[in-house]
Design brief:
Length: 598
């Protein structure tokens, strides 16, 4: 494709390129034919004037016949030209040949005015006749400019008889006039040649431009097609991931429930250690599924930012609270600058982005410190995550933001991460309209920073309070929980885990079974934990709504492995807390406590 566009230098001479040559000839013919449709009217006037001048000296029938024959020929040529313009000739070279014959005929008729009238005219009229004929041929210079040969076929028969007549007159003056006519004819020939060259070049340039435009248009279409394919592939990938992650989440969720129960009930040290390992493996598997889900949601355009006023101090303190223990464990200093300033952004998405950056800072720093700095000026708030860790070589700066790309982890050791953290950061930044700046030196630490627009005070996004640990052990004892899930293994796992926290558990697969349970046992339900996608297209939100009609406003929360964007939105709109499978035991406990406390 590039070759088609950059082909100017490789163009063959037009005569050796049949396509361009035919195109050129067609254009020449069209211009010539268009001129031929106009010229008869002007020439009819000139012929009438000439006829009037000579009419007193030659027989009228001769004068009339000459003028009528000439004008008639021109009108025949006009008709021919019109027909060819309406229905372009198949053989354009032949049509040009016809135009040459017409020109030759017109030249003969025009030039015959000499032999017919010259000898009968007095000097003044001879001079007039000569002047008119010479001017007449000069008119042909522009009308025949498209194709010089047509002019040559015309000018020779039009002027040569006149030249001979002047020469035959005999005196020096007359010969001088003849010479002047010849010179004038030659100059006209030169003009026509130059004109034809200009016309040819302009036709060819236009042709090339059109070809380039066509090539560009084709290229544009191809690029658009490729983009559409890429977008469709990306959508398909996201849909596939969303579907696959639902199916992955179900067993993963059941597994995490079992393993949490196992940890709590471990009777000896070996079982406890095995349970610990299972938990660890599950945690990294859950992280992978969550990260994949995040990437697929962001790529599918299922996340739209909700811009609020956010106090940077509150955000920083939330992150600090979660990472203080990590810093302690890794014996790293954790410096945090709690500056009070309001900015405008999506609080949830920004927090997710910063957490990924802080997570990396701790992960890739062995000694020294990690800092979460905030710098504020009149219009912006700059948040920087600094570390004194491994640093990032210049050559890797772009690539670390690609999916699954990790520096120095070719054996893909999962404990070193998945290579999705910065891919998510990049997508979130794009969504929030932010630019992530990276300053780093190999071996000397890195600084990732983002700059956000500052906002006036006013209502600030209220971050939910962190879940309180401690009193939970007691708070759940004796609570009756109705678990609704169509997956038997999840029901068993949930029962085991919730009972280990002291809950009373009733489990069922959907609304009908829940009704039966309630009828049979006259139960008082304290909390409903419902799956989102239930059998026979039953929807967990709807099930909770219908059960609440019977039970009153019972606290409820949703657990789902369904990640389709529409489903997520629906869940959000219901106002019910929504947990993604697999749910860790801690997360479940915190959310249950929070819902019960409302
Ligand atoms: P992961 O951390 O799971 O490997 P990321 O996408 O978060 O994936 O990061 C990609 C790569 O970028 C990492 O493998 C790491 O080599 C490099 N990297 C990211 N953050 C830092 C940092 N703060 N210091 C040094 N290297 C980093």
């Amino acid at each position: 494709m590039g070759a088609a566009i950059s082909g100017k230098a490789e163009l063959l001479p037009v005569e050796q390129d049949p396509v361009r040559f035919t195109h050129l000839r067609r254009q020449q013919f069209n211009l010539l034919a268009r001129q031929a449709t106009r010229s008869p009217f002007v020439i009819a006037i000139v012929a009438t004037v000439l006829a009037y001048i000579v009419s007193g000296h030659a027989p009228v029938y001769q004068v009339v016949l000459w003028a009528v024959a000439l004008v008639a020929l021109l009108f025949v040529r006009r008709a021919y030209a019109l027909r060819q313009l309406n229905k372009p000739p198949v053989d354009v070279q032949r049509a040009l040949g016809h135009m040459m014959w017409f020109a030759f005929g017109a030249g003969l008729f025009t030039g015959s005015a000499g032999p017919l009238f010259f000898s009968r005219l007095p000097d003044v009229e001879r001079a007039l006749l000569t002047m008119i004929l010479v001017c007449w041929t000069a008119g042909g210079v522009s009308t025949a400019a498209a194709y010089a040969r047509v002019f040559y076929a015309y000018v020779a028969p039009a002027l040569l008889p006149l030249v001979l007549l002047w020469v035959m007159t005999g005196d020096t003056q007359s010969v001088a006039v003849a010479v002047l006519i010849v010179l004038f004819g030659l100059i006209q020939v030169l003009f026509v040649r130059d004109n034809e060259r200009v016309v040819r070049e302009s036709f060819l340039i236009r042709y090339e431009n059109e070809r380039l435009l066509e090539a560009l248009e084709r290229e544009r279409q191809e690029v658009m097609l490729a983009r559409d394919h890429a977008e469709a592939a990306n959508r398909a990938k996201s849909q596939f991931l969303a579907a696959a992650s639902h199916d992955l989440r179900q067993p993963l969720h059941a597994l995490s429930l079992y393993s949490a129960t196992l940890t709590m009930r471990a009777v000896d040290a070996t079982t406890s250690e095995i349970a610990g390992h299972i938990n660890q493996a599950l945690a990294s598997l859950s992280t992978l599924v969550d990260s994949l889900l995040d990437v697929s949601k962001l790529d599918a355009g299922a996340v739209s930012p909700e811009i609020r006023r956010v106090n940077v101090k509150e955000l920083i303190e939330r992150i600090e609270a979660d990472y203080r223990p990590v810093a302690r464990e890794k014996k790293l200093a954790f410096r945090v600058a709690p500056v009070d300033a309001i900015m405008e952004t999506d609080p949830v998405l920004l927090e997710r982005m910063l957490r990924n950056l802080v997570d990396n800072a701790f992960k890739y720093t062995a000694v020294g410190d990690v800092a979460l700095d905030v710098e504020v000026d009149e219009s912006s708030v700059c948040i920087a995550v600094r570390d004194t860790g491994a640093g990032i070589p210049n050559s890797e700066r772009e690539r670390i933001f690609e999916e699954f790309y990790q520096v120095g982890n070719p054996e893909r050791d999962r404990t070193q991460g998945l290579g999705l953290g910065l891919a998510i950061v990049k997508r979130l930044a794009r969504l929030l309209g932010l630019k992530v700046k990276l300053v780093s030196q190999s071996g000397r630490g890195s600084t990732f920073s983002v700059t956000l627009p500052r906002a006036e005070g006013g209502h600030v996004f209220p971050y939910p309070p962190p879940a309180t640990a401690g009193e939970d052990a007691v708070a759940l004892v004796g609570v009756t929980v109705l678990v609704i899930d169509d997956e038997p293994s999840v029901r068993v796992g949930m029962r085991a885990l919730l009972e280990s926290w002291g809950c009373r558990v009733r489990a069922c697969s959907g609304y009908v079974e829940a009704q039966r349970l309630l009828d049979e046992h006259a139960l008082e339900i304290d909390l409903i934990v419902a799956d989102f996608r239930l059998p026979q297209h039953e929807n967990g939100i709807e099930t909770v709504r219908r059960l609440r009609e019977r039970l009153g406003d019972v606290p409820a929360l949703m657990v789902s492995g369904d990640t389709a964007p529409e489903r997520l939105r629906e869940a959000q709109e219901s106002g019910l807390p929504f947990l993604h499978k697999p749910v860790s035991a801690d997360k479940l406990k915190q959310t249950m406590l929070a819902v019960l406390a409302r």
